[in-house]
Amino acid sequence: MIEMNAPDRCLAKKFEVIKEPGAIPRDMENVFVPLEVICRHHLTGSGFKRYVDGKVDSSEFGFEPGTVLEDGVKLPKPYLEVSTKFEAFDRLLDREEALEISNLTGDEFDAILDCVLEIDAIIEREAGARGLIHVDGKKEFALGPGRKPVLVDSFGTLDEDRWWDSETYANGEIVSLSKEFVREHYIAIGHHEKLYGARETGSEEPPIPALPQEIIDQTADLYADMFERLTGEQF
Fold first, then answer.
1. How does pLDDT run across 106-144, given as a tens digit for each residue?
2. Cβ density class 34-67: b for 16+ within 10 Å, e for less
3. Do 69 and 58 form a contact (C-beta atoms < 8 A)?
């Protein structure tokens, strides 16, 4: 983003998008990086599910081997993951495949990861002062002049990031303050399980049930309230 030039508009830099894996030239500038970086500060969601399913041990997240973890536990240090950008569904990548797909050098890849950690440190400081816990979030980048990382797309919102209320968390309760609120509704009615079951078997995905008006109203109230908590401005 270059500047906000109206309440609902911004002027932004355009980057070239190359979707073919490994096709970005090593000397190309102003190009989108076909990776998504996820940074976890608490273990929940898909990360916790992989732990529960036995696909990863607690040591993967920085704990002593064999440590029993609970949903929502604070991680000893931020945990970074990288996923694909142009496949039908997000897929986690190891470092080798991430470099292969993006054709980044190791130093360029590490520079992007360092940016994520620095950005999240700012988010954690600012959100913490407003009674919020920044649970996790995802970010995307381009390579600008000199192939320096440029943060693109949106980040730090209720769509890209997961937020909890720090007071309720301290009392042992997790209250979702993001689009996770809507996902929890679909989990509760069984649609989430049916959807991912269909994806795993390659069968046709079930139609998405309409949201009840009550959930729509609660979601609207949540987004308006979180706008005020995150920005300090009146909605």
1. 999 999 999 999 999 999 999 999 999 999 999 999 999
2. bbbbbbbbbbbbebbeebeeeeeebeebebeeee
3. yes
Q: Which helix (H) or strand (E) holds 227?
A: helix 213-231
How far is the C-alpha of 225 from the C-alpha of 222, rounded, in Å? 5
Structural domain boundaries of the chain? Answer: 3-176, 179-235
Structurally, what CATH architecture does the domain formed by 3-176 represent? 2-Layer Sandwich (3.30)
Query: d(Cα 137, Cα 158) in Å, to the nearest integer?
Result: 9
CB 28, CB 105: distance < 8 Å: no
% of the chain with per-residue pLDDT over 70 = 100
Considering Cα of 216, then 85, then 47, then 208, what sign does the dihedral take?
positive
pLDDT tens, residue by residue, 57-81: 999 999 999 999 999 999 999 999 9
* pTM: predicted TM-score of the whole model, two decimal places: 0.88
Average the pLDDT over 16-44 and give the result: 97
